[in-house]
Amino acid sequence: MVQVRTRDALAFQALVAVILLIVLIAIILPLWRVIVTAFTPLDVYTRGGAPLFLAPGQWTAEAFRQLLGHPLFPRAMLNSVIITLAGTALSLVLTVPLAYGLSSHALPGRNGIMLMILFTFLFNPGLIPVYLLVTKLGLTNSFWAIILPPAVGVTNTLVMMRFFEGLPEELREAARMDGANELQVLWHVILPLSKPILLTIGLFYSVYFWNEFFTPILYLTDRDLMPLPVLLRNILISASFNEYVEYDAFSSASLESLKSAAVLLTMLPMLLVYPWIQRYFTKGSLLGAVKE
Amino acid sequence: MMAPTLLYFLIFRYGPLWNAQIAFKDFRPLLGVWGSPWAGLQNFASFFNSFYFEELISNTLFFSVTKLVLGIPLAVILALALHETWFARYRTVVQTMAYLPHFLSWVVMFGVMLTVLSPNNGLINQVIELLGGRPIAFLTSPEWFRQVVVLSDLWKETGWSTILYLAALLAISPNLYEAATVDGASHLQRIRHISLPGILPVIVLVTLLRLGHILEAGFNQIFVLYSVPVYSVGDIIDTWVYRQGVLQFQFSLATAVGLFKGVVGLILILVANRLSKRMTELPLF
Questions:
Q1: Do B285 and A232 touch (CB under 8 A)?
Q2: A292 pLDDT more than 50
Q3: CATH superfamily ID and name for B39-280
Q4: Which of residues 66-85 of B touch A (CB under 8 A)?
Q5: Which residue is closest to B125 within chain A, CA to CA?
Q6: Which architecture does CATH list for A72-224?
């Protein structure tokens, strides 16, 4: 864009910069607050809560040590990892063939299948019918109850379908001429070209599974199966911590530090993959939005 | 090759549809979905006539409409600011931070909000106490709960929702801006006459899409944040369905309410889709 540095332009730029600064501070301040609270030592905290800034020598990882020292927290982390990996794998295995099939307009019955899928996207009969189905199938207290019902996302399928449609049709035809069956075409020709979309949709699914807390509350009553967000919720609403931490009366941490440390530990994997997520998600959500 | 996925749709997407018939029945778990006696429209009638009907609808609409009315202008302003700034590095930093909350679950959000809103040393309450005021229980007082819900949703989602507007802004030809500058247009005039008309179709599209989902007030958010003291101002259709169905075993009643919401949602999204085709020539799906 043309940049003419008149006084008017500079004033306008200052205004824009201030708006962005306000947004930046509004986002960072609460997150910064969580970090400081998690690392604030008990004696500092009892003198009036977490400070805005903590002197470099004061940071303590006591809250993290207590949480990770108790078997419940690492167990929940493991459960979350299992749910996320298994759920994402299952979702991709079910989504890819459907998206690939629908991307070929010659598919017999394509319109019927499309209608059947779109209808489930547009009409949602609500929570209870699904709940009755899952309990009837006997999936309660198993991770299947978490990963099966939401396994295929309609939007994700359509986004992936559009990506496959964009690949040159000649590729498939050439492979078929060489005698490859559809599965071989998909596996050897299409998927190697589809890494960006697989990564994008895979990340969509994994963020969903990592964050999911409602269905685990609904279907998992066994404490050993509890994933991280559910444990975090229990920690956040509890007033007593003896059942969640390696309680140590002498070098303890405040309840608020323990809560904030639990928040940070739940966020951590997200923060680690965030640079990739951001790049692919930005592209992916535009893929879905700007069509044709 | 598609068979497993189609089987999935049959079981997990159409199975619930079969179960939804209990909305018209008096469901007894021992008799099963098919064996339970028919009850006509009795479940629907008892919902429409009940005293909580009005409360649930008005809470649901309050949240979705307020989030829409405040959310879209804020996202447009932020997108314009990001688009206008000369400092590319600064823009990237703001974008990176503003997108981040979108990826947090509402449980994590709840934890973040506690450090700011808690009456027990939350940041805002520390400031209030510093100024001589008394701490406010933002999450459990009916006067504050709705504001907290709307503002926390804006905090979480505004950044992410700029993406569509930014894409539309980038699609506007730079020649238009150059020509306007040569003609002596001010910055605000350029925004008003070039940027805003350029993203108007996207604004219309997003508005229609959100109107189509106007009964979705944010179940996950309310479920995590609400508590008994704020039910009167915070309870929405979805949370009520959960409590009635799962906790009170009123399966038929809860299903009827969920089905009612589903049918209204279906009609709204079809209407929105038609309007969108007519107004922007873009279908919603």
A1: no
A2: no
A3: MetI-like (1.10.3720.10)
A4: 77-78, 81-82, 84-85
A5: A49
A6: Orthogonal Bundle (1.10)
